[in-house]
């Protein structure tokens, strides 16, 4: 494999746009060699040259919240098929927020093996890169253990759930060190009070702020970021007070308060709203689910079973919960300068989600409902998550960075729908190697 050159293209580099750009990158190194504007490179005989006129080139997308393994949830299909849909939607990196380390290792091995095979045999790649928290810092009988077990769990499910951590203040440091040694890229907390679910409040043990501070301090001492699950304002405030770096959901129990906005500003925490997942929780925004299920069907991205699940909703929220609260939180926090990172909470078999198309839906929600410009929306899935997670090798189109790239027909900056309408995504490269579309 030699050099690939894309010329005469509209470039969104992760931050801003450039007309008539030329980008050269290599499969062997997986690195972008050069980026020029208004100057075409002299192609070598072994170079693959692509005329990008009428197209937009962007950094590979990052879905900042997924789960590659979902015990207790309906079977969502074969793992590689699920991940292939993500890459075909332009997602070159996914951030897993709680999964079996065995599943994570298997995914990462496939990614490494298919790259090596593609380099040797001249083939293509099919899976996005995977970052992961491995197992989150779950507590004894806490969320989501008790809810997943339900009333009549199978022996297999009980064994799986019992293998999860039961972290205490005394074992917080050990848990973090073990996670890091086993390949965790960051640490994930669960702060769930069940106020937003159709279950009795207090039905599961709630981690204390003392515990969350202990885990957070241990993670920071090891150089790891800490992210936290919370669905209510009260739980969000607690983990912000504990010192987390970001939240993996916004809240749906009330409109944003002055106090919660101030805490975000004081801590400089970022937000992964997961409006896709929250809308399926409340059973609202059915028009979005229908639209992106149609797009997934038109592009032949998912199997019939996943397509059916995309159109459904979980509808498992308390009566006082509203999707509008989540939307307004993004509007307000974004206006106050809080970093918004696009993530979907997609997982195999979860109603209303599908890894890949759900990111398109999430981006559309930011643009149509949350007053975010197309540039802000595109940054939320490229340069902003790369910067906030510390993924310094990706998220932007610059010389020396990973050649994770997406080529789309049309001007995506003017019309976000170019991602899923018409010809849509024409090519995707992960580390300089073309993906199977």
SSE run: EEEEEEHEHEHHHEHEHEHEHHHHHHHEEE
Number of domains: 1
> Mean of the pLDDT scores?
93
By secondary-structure content and strand pairing, the structural class works out as alpha/beta
Which fold does the CATH topology refer to? TIM Barrel
Mind telling me the CATH class?
A: Alpha Beta
Q: Count the helices. How many? A: 15
Cα end-to-end separation: 19 Å
The second-level CATH architecture is: Alpha-Beta Barrel
Please give the number of β-strands.
Answer: 15
Q: How much strand?
A: 15-25%
Task: Assign a percent range to the helix content.
Answer: 25-40%
Find the CATH superfamily. Answer: Metal-dependent hydrolases
Describe this entry's structure for a reader.
With 437 residues, this protein is α/β, with parallel strands linked by helices. The protein has one domain: Alpha-Beta Barrel (TIM Barrel), CATH 3.20.20.140. It is 36% helix and 17% strand. The chain is built from 15 helices and 15 strands. Strands 1, 2, 3, 4, 5, 13, 14 and 15 form an eight-stranded mixed beta sheet that branches.
Brief rundown of the structure:
The chain has 437 residues and is an alpha/beta fold. Helix content is 36%, strand content 17%.
